[in-house]
Amino acid sequence: MEIEKYQIAEYNDPVLNAHQKAFAYIASTVPNAEAIIEKLRAFQVAIPSWALGTGGTRFARFAGGGEPRNLEEKIMDIGLLHALNRSSGAISLHIPWDIPSNPANIRALAAQYGLSFDAMNSNTFQDQPGQPLSYKYGSLQHTDSATRQQAIDHNIEVINYGIELGSTSLTVWLADGSCFPGQLNFRKAFQNTLSGLQEIYKALPENWKMFVEYKAFEPNFYSTTVGDWGQSLLYANKLGEKAYTLVDLGHHLPNANIEQIVSLLLMEGKLGGFHFNDSKYGDDDLTVGSIKPYQLFLIFNELIDGMDARGMEHTTDLGWMIDASHNVKDPLEDLLQSVEAIMLAYAQALLVDRRQLAEAQKLNDVVRAQEILQQAYRTDVRPLVAEARLRDGGALMPLCIFRSSEVRKNLIRERGSVSVATGL
Amino acid sequence: MEIEKYQIAEYNDPVLNAHQKAFAYIASTVPNAEAIIEKLRAFQVAIPSWALGTGGTRFARFAGGGEPRNLEEKIMDIGLLHALNRSSGAISLHIPWDIPSNPANIRALAAQYGLSFDAMNSNTFQDQPGQPLSYKYGSLQHTDSATRQQAIDHNIEVINYGIELGSTSLTVWLADGSCFPGQLNFRKAFQNTLSGLQEIYKALPENWKMFVEYKAFEPNFYSTTVGDWGQSLLYANKLGEKAYTLVDLGHHLPNANIEQIVSLLLMEGKLGGFHFNDSKYGDDDLTVGSIKPYQLFLIFNELIDGMDARGMEHTTDLGWMIDASHNVKDPLEDLLQSVEAIMLAYAQALLVDRRQLAEAQKLNDVVRAQEILQQAYRTDVRPLVAEARLRDGGALMPLCIFRSSEVRKNLIRERGSVSVATGL
Amino acid sequence: MEIEKYQIAEYNDPVLNAHQKAFAYIASTVPNAEAIIEKLRAFQVAIPSWALGTGGTRFARFAGGGEPRNLEEKIMDIGLLHALNRSSGAISLHIPWDIPSNPANIRALAAQYGLSFDAMNSNTFQDQPGQPLSYKYGSLQHTDSATRQQAIDHNIEVINYGIELGSTSLTVWLADGSCFPGQLNFRKAFQNTLSGLQEIYKALPENWKMFVEYKAFEPNFYSTTVGDWGQSLLYANKLGEKAYTLVDLGHHLPNANIEQIVSLLLMEGKLGGFHFNDSKYGDDDLTVGSIKPYQLFLIFNELIDGMDARGMEHTTDLGWMIDASHNVKDPLEDLLQSVEAIMLAYAQALLVDRRQLAEAQKLNDVVRAQEILQQAYRTDVRPLVAEARLRDGGALMPLCIFRSSEVRKNLIRERGSVSVATGL
Amino acid sequence: MEIEKYQIAEYNDPVLNAHQKAFAYIASTVPNAEAIIEKLRAFQVAIPSWALGTGGTRFARFAGGGEPRNLEEKIMDIGLLHALNRSSGAISLHIPWDIPSNPANIRALAAQYGLSFDAMNSNTFQDQPGQPLSYKYGSLQHTDSATRQQAIDHNIEVINYGIELGSTSLTVWLADGSCFPGQLNFRKAFQNTLSGLQEIYKALPENWKMFVEYKAFEPNFYSTTVGDWGQSLLYANKLGEKAYTLVDLGHHLPNANIEQIVSLLLMEGKLGGFHFNDSKYGDDDLTVGSIKPYQLFLIFNELIDGMDARGMEHTTDLGWMIDASHNVKDPLEDLLQSVEAIMLAYAQALLVDRRQLAEAQKLNDVVRAQEILQQAYRTDVRPLVAEARLRDGGALMPLCIFRSSEVRKNLIRERGSVSVATGL
């Protein structure tokens, strides 16, 4: 199932006038519409390979149909998304769920859809069939050195797959931790994990980065061995300059001020990547922007401010990825909603008058500082984001095309109604 | 310090063209602009008398200047706000901080500014000078019946003041509870409190309502005796048809789904009033809409849906009040920001296409339901709210006028730089 | 695998002297040792059939060996626990995981081990093979009446199984709720759920109870349709006198005061049952007493106080059940630890001097009230609990026997190392 | 008001027999009673000077009587506590609440009671009368360099007072932060704060330590500038080897695993001090051990394990201090309860069989690891703590003597019933 450029143009046609009117209006009211559009066009969010199928809750998975049955079909799905929104031009793979049997072919297929390979993800939180040693009691933290070595070897294998595909980063997320007080010696678990990460770090090619992802808790846990940004930063600093912290929005204790964490990590030069999703209670992996869109805006506000202060490139100097689960929505529709929410927050943050904000901050003019942020946030920037898509041949209304052209129906026809995406 | 209508018109003049352009644009894109404007014009939020001065944190109060020194000046301040935004046409008094020595005069003064008297608030969480019995261990929950009676008598006194001023409701917020396990017999505390509320209920005039406010916790507490909506509803049901639950946004445990609470209370016919503010961690009493504006929208979405389903009048059938604290902002500026945020959320909620939403819900079309809500929320409704103000002689940009006309400077000149609002 | 009484006696023998010394000491220091022991002996906690196998986290299940392969083996496992601790004399079944093909035989088998059948549990949170309609969008709350009817019918079927087994209560836990704002009309979801519960209620035999379990959130949720005790109580009150609220320790928002909830539900005559477990972050289903043992004590303190005040029988007038998950422990060992923690908390709560506590509360003597609770909690009541077991033929040290007699090794030999308990 | 040694002995007399029996029992059941007693005797907890009077909630302070009116009386009060429990042999002063007009005399007075001077505390969270510049918008983070300098100067002044009194550490707790998004540039606030701390650090004498205290939130806040252990550690590492992190139990987000934080800070050699209290919801500053005693034990378990691993002295290599507020209890009674709870948790942690625990951890024997911790925690160690007091001439039952000898009544007679402790 593909959607051709001409088809998109056909779908855009009837709504083009309304869009042009809306765009003209917004362009006349904001000072920097063209500059924002250029930044929006350049901005790309990676889609994780595991987000293309229906996810599950603790108890059940209510599968939809037409899920991609292999890596090739996953790439096609992301190609479809990218054709529609022109902002999903990267894929983040997970090993062993997505082992490329023929990397060169896979790379060529992705290139065909304009997709590059973002961070590679390893998996030491599940036991694979035939795996000699179990991760029941952790992987890199394990008290048994052979189990640790197995986890190290796996990560190096993931790097090697990544090299073949043209990826340049490895995300290490560990489900290591404990369920009960007393189970772990926290310091030994940290030291074991650090040693393991150091071994993996040694295997990184020169131009690669390692992202150390943290997470406050999992259901049924008492502690996690990379639990918060402070711990992740400790690891990253001890590892070296290629190691960075990765922030996932859902991996915090209740009420955490994530935008401040982002700002401080940028200050330290140690923010490496970002996982977008949204949450109401825990790590809910809901559609980006569906619960706390203002928080998302505030985070982008800090990202832009902090990256600009260091002369970082928005597009390349951080890894941007969605990490969500889709249990009651069509996964592709959910991803379209998520990317849209990200682009809107990015556009709003680009609207913030930073000179005036700095001045208000200097004068402790709290009311004005709030007004400046809200002025940007309350602006309806949807026409800017749509215009950016349009200029790149994308859809004005991606979700509408997705539905009108009956993508899911076609996918089910092609792949069947009971396909299950690998890894789910 | 007053701002005359002609002055407001003069301030509006230079921005009128821009507003008209913006309003024309939004009016052309939403289906029901005029209907929304009429609802916005009718909607009034009460300002609590204690919100007009600088608040404090646990440790310090960093006072601003020009605070109202008495009830008359508080009314003038609210009159000023109302002149600017035309949406602050009510005042909520607190006894004993605002005892009207001459109620008839006070009532006439308020009427001059177009203000009515919203819910009266009693105070049994502080000991007043000369008060015979202490509330150290609670008021209506107290194990000593004489202390309970003193608290009952005080509430009846508050009702009597309210009658003279033309108020028709009493808000009972208790700081009753305990600091340590074992301190209270929970059931006896509940029964004592219920008995006290029943005595107060008996003193309510026919057309009055009693609002039972709940709160999950206070600093230094272990339990509160009206702790959540479930407890408040128990009291309200046992009291009778004039008793209702009052919801304050900041009075919940972390992550509570307040919009669902609101919906269920409306279903039960027992939602009576609302206290607006915003929070990051606890009961922070921050400016409305400054932290979680989407939550505010979702709450309004439920309020409108639930009130319409019962045929309730938005303007009169619930008590709407701000309850915030202003520690680092000019209180009047903060209130202007708060009212603006409320009006925007109300306007956005009025934009929701309820017929389509019901249809999407019926079909379990989760993606579309989300799109419908976001379509309304992402719309820039500021011109609608400004237009509503304009039609009532208010300011297009209330905060700008407040600053340009140097209101605070004038208030400081009139009242001094070290005035302290009564009750703070 | 069974352990005979004479074997238990043999295991007890070498530690009997030490126990007698310890028991003599504690018996000489508390005023009511014999009365407590009698209550401990009468107290029985039901084991849920799904807790006998290894549970899983979101990502993986690291199975142990020797898990019960059918209902008969589950009963044997609980029989073994009960033989050791004499406090696990009941089983709580889950349909369809434990459908008894021959109820009379099952009942006889359970009787052989001294086990009765506690609350029956229905399942409308998973789709079973061949099930006509899906619960993807909820069960009793569903917008489609046929799906609701299917869920009603299933619950009635569960009641019928229960009747055959001699159970007298049904626990209804629903995973109904929503993942996103807008997905549900909260009021309609409530009304649909209520209607469904009413249909099920009608099918209850005269002497049965229905327990309406609430839960604040699940991973990936935005709302739950029976979300807190307030909602559960609304349902229970509307249903009738056979309907009660069931409290699960892990089903609350952060920091909730569960002991107060318990107290108020008892005050209203609507507390029906209890699910024991422990948690650090969310609904972690950890071993009872492993994280917050003082909270467990405070809850028992309220249970005893509230039940005594209503003349309720501790042993029969509430349903007591463990609801935990065992991911890194041997499930049977975990259950032994859980039951021990429950018995200790119960014993400590029985030690509280209620006359003195009431007096301290009356006088607002907060320090003394705390001392009274801590005096009970700090007492080492393990010898009392061990003595209660001993008098009933149980083990002084159940966990030691379990290990020394190599129960797990034997179970693996009997059942294999890759057995998977039904339902997991 | 003082209690002489002979009086304490007289009070001990009637309960001595019972104690000896209890002590003999526990001494016969634990392997290392004498070693534990020696450690308990050496362990001293500092009492903060502000904890000797009645605290307040957000709304009211319900004062008790007989509060110390000056520094001399505060020292006497702590002397009294120390005479009773022999474990409160240090005082932690707060400037400007406790400026010693004659340091030599104050030092001599303290010595008379066997008290040393623990960490000095500065105050830049309140404006003092006559202070030139306000801390309304922060102190060390302030955008105005003169305000920052004022805060620096104040801290240096505090060091100087401390030198004269024989203290060797400075605790810096800042209420710096922001109330609203946009108010602060997080990175500039961090850099300003760091610069200020660096200036203060320069003024530290050779043998001094600086403790950088963190806190997640205050009521009415949106961010804090030293918000968590990660931030505090960043500051401490940038400052140098005399700078350490200080952990206050109440200063965390909900559900934080504080024992893990403690362990990692010890691993990094950067844990400097500890503030004891307890909490149910936020920073409640309740009596130590009154809400989560098992958490307190787990923290001590990590402290001992981590300190022993580094060869640190329990008694001297960390600063131990109570930081609580007393609103409904007699402050001195509350402090006696707090110190008792600390000593019990310390004793229980000393009971943990570390060799066996390490072995269980090595083998991933989670059940056994939990048993080992619970074995220690469930032991009634009160006779050990009492014995330690007894051997140092303290009271077997400090609270009983306090009440029997009518200390508070005497203090009220001496100081009046309306005295207010300085700083409250």
From TrEMBL, chains A, B, C, D:
Transmembrane segments: none annotated. InterPro entries: L-rhamnose_isomerase, Xyl_isomerase-like_sf. It comes from the Bacteria. GO terms for molecular function: isomerase activity; metal ion binding. Keywords: Isomerase, Manganese, Metal-binding. Gene3D superfamilies: Divalent-metal-dependent TIM barrel enzymes (3.20.20.150). This is L-rhamnose isomerase/sugar isomerase. It comes from Chitinophaga dinghuensis.
